[in-house]
Amino acid sequence: AATPGATVLVKANGRSNSESGREGLVNIVTGGTITPIWSNMTWSSVDGWLRRLMTDRAGASVEVGVMRTLSGESVEIPITPLAMRASEGRTLEIMIQPRNVRNYDTPIIQCLDTVTIGEGAEAVTSFVGLKVTGDRITLLTTNRQNVDTQTVKYDCDEPIHLAIVVNPVYSEAGSAFAACMVFINGQRQRIFAYDRDLNVSSHLFIGSADADVDTFDIRTYDKALTHGEIETKCVNWEKSLYDKAYMKNLFNIRENGK
């Protein structure tokens, strides 16, 4: 079952370029419509709301819905999934895949504020928040700016379920600290302590000048999901019953939970 408490849930399945109101994003949680800003879309047979034929782990063909932006196209979604007070947690989940990547350094997803770090001659321009390029995921906070340790590589040849979890009261192995975590396909890839200094006012931006981007689903929570909840959500988003069973076995998830 889906983890309760989501504030935004946008799904590409069931959408079509031919429908009225195609430019609106339906928030399934509230039933309302989110009005994004689209740039350079043609709403033809090659971009927008499309059906994509994929193959599951058993070799069976499965058709799924995607929101596709081609190179040079983009969508700014007026949600702020990383805006929070110091005592609050957040979770951003998004299932995506870049395609036809020409430059792996160009962002495909951004939810960040540009900031100046340092003073005078030593001042440099950086960012606070999330940046996803063609093969890397970077999450920076105001006082934690180590790109090497706060970046995760990923394989763009397959769709990924990306989850960013910010937990100001995280506890592990007897230690309590504020933690930022990056999950890919249900597995935690990075965790680092932060100074409860992550508060991004900017919207979620999807699109690239150097890649096509398929977005399957977007979900946000005004709380920090647990590792087990992230694993379960990853199973729920699998494209076929075979793949759901595969992921349940991988994560050792029983029907009634772990």
Description:
With 258 residues, the chain is mainly beta. It is built from two helices and 17 strands. The strands form three sheets. Strands 1, 5, 6, 8, 13, 14, 15 and 17 form an eight-stranded antiparallel sheet that branches. A seven-stranded antiparallel sheet has the order 4-7-16-9-10-11-12, with no helix packed on it. Strands 2-3 form a two-stranded antiparallel sheet. α1 (227-236) packs antiparallel against α2. The radius of gyration is 18 Å and the shape is globular. The two termini are 13 Å apart.
What is shown here, in short?
This protein is mainly β and 258 residues long.
Query: Uncertain spans, ≥5 residues at pLDDT below 50?
Result: 254-258
Rg, alpha carbons: 18 Å
What is the β-strand count? 17
What portion of the residues fall into strands of 2 or more residues?
A: over 45%
Gap from first CA to last CA? 13 Å
What is the approximate shape? globular
What share of residues is helical?
under 10%
Counting helices, strands and paired strands, the structural category is: mainly beta
Mean pLDDT: 91
Number of helices: 2
Largest sheet geometry: 8 strands, antiparallel
Helix-strand string: EEEEEEEEEEEEEEEEEHH
